Fold this protein.
Amino acid sequence: MLALRQRKKTPRNDQYMAWVRDQDSCVSRVYHNVVSHHVRCFGWGGMGIKPSDFRVVPLTHDEHMYLHQHGEAEFWEDVGIDPRCIIAANLIVYMREVLHEPLSLDETDMLAGISYDAMIEFLEKRIETIGGVH
């Protein structure tokens, strides 16, 4: 008999989502009318599957609508931004400024040598150990 694999619960964090909405848009640097966009490219989501709340970027409402009208991959290419860079930077700032849990020197050195995907996964787990996931 095959054992069914239990699906891992996707991390949710209302506090982080609100914090991201309080940042400037990562595209236009506009501060008002900002929404948290869940980045679905890079295999992080799919039809009906929302990525972790930690894999979001701040966009204005208009930028967000444009992204959904033209597709995520095309949007990021058009604006010349890798959203993983924004996500990783925001997670590091959030940990330091909101959770008061800055990265150690060893962690900073380790992150310097890994991909954005691995970095974001590490940061999500680090926040989870602090108790920042529900």
Helices lie at 14-21, 61-70, 72-79, 83-97, 105-111, 116-130.
